[in-house]
């Protein structure tokens, strides 16, 4: 009998401890709570998106609606977001909007834009993703670390730049276009159509790891003991500049 | 404060003539606007140049000497000039010997030719000579000779000057970052330091290569690129 009561007491104690633990966990939830922000703007086809984030992931996707939809999840302490619609340009600047705030949590954006939008996004740290866009411009810049992924892009001016992290481009090389990819440490991988016409200057001074893949058959010059490759493919109407200070550069057929 | 307002106040800001609240507004705008910050830096450089180099130009004239010269001129006009002994032109001409005259003419011809060549080259290739990262391989023999004589700036000198200017800008932004750094959270500080180390690694690498081989143009170009990256990183974090 006493054995059974001992078990019962222990069971109840365990139950109490579990209840307290659940209560504490419930109380601690607000610390990690995420706020949601959502706004939609009607947009002309040549709209421009200009977004500057402090930290977090930014994803921009092209869609077949004439509107820009901004959805953001804000980690605590939640940042201020005040988008502006300035005559055809949607401006979001979290650096400016949170200038005097000591601590601001990550803000993760998902922005849906018309296919023909010009995209100009920047963050101090975090990943940047852009897909299904064929406007005049795609610019993605990370001040410090994070990966840049640009997929299904048809823009004539593309620029991707970070310090630490990988850069992946999967898209067209438009005739007469300008393409610039620069990283200090990471891997730069470019997946482009085989029939692209461009002049390329690819520089990887530390690793000398430049792989042109199927594009290796063009008119190519190796400069500075293989630290730089200069080549021309087709009529060479587009310009590609790829620089990776401490990492590799690889070309793939799309 | 917008860009127009800020630019109109940069000059009084540099002269410390703005009220503290306005000056604060200018400072805050400069921190977030790279274009205005560039204008500010240019103006600051001009002000500095005027302060250091303009002293000679602004020095008060030596008035006693000036008066002495004026009185000498007046006296010479008043005093009767004794009639000078007529000098035959042939006598004046033969003060120089024929070889002396020939040497003089040859010297004038050489100097004027050199000046013409330098002038034409500078005029016909302004972009190349203006580029601070012009390749040493592009330098002609004449330019090398003139460079050694100190008559023109060599590509290497231009490059060193350019890097020195970049370092000055980096110091400026470094000071701004040092002021803001205490406001950052730990995650931001760590990310900044980590990435600054990555960039500095490249800066050291190219600086060492250039010490061994000053004519390695590719390393010079890469050093320019990473110094620009460093400046951008500092500028980006100076407004956080």
- Give the count of helical stretches of chain A: 2
- pLDDT averaged over residues of chain A: 89
Count of helical segments of chain B? 12
H/E topology pattern of chain A: HEEEEEEHEEEEEEEEEEEEEEE
3D structure, described in words:
The complex is a heterodimer of chains A (254) and B (240). Chain A has helices at residues 2-32, 94-97; strands at 34-42, 48-55, 58-63, 67-75, 84-86, 89-93, 107-114, 118-125, 128-133, 137-142, 148-153, 157-161, 167-171, 178-183, 187-192, 198-203, 210-211, 219-223, 228-233, 238-244, 248-253. Chain A has 254 residues and is mostly beta strands. In chain A, the strands form 2 sheets. Chain A has an 11-stranded mixed beta sheet. Chain A has a 10-stranded mixed beta sheet with strand order 1-4-7-3-9-11-13-15-21-17, with no helix packed on it. The radius of gyration of chain A is 25 Å and the shape is globular. Mean pLDDT of chain A is 89; it is low at 26-31. The model of chain B is unreliable at 55-59 and 126-130 (pLDDT under 50). Chain B has 12 helices and no strands. The chains are: A mainly beta (254), B mainly alpha (240). At the A-B interface, loops of A face helix 11 and helix 12 of B.
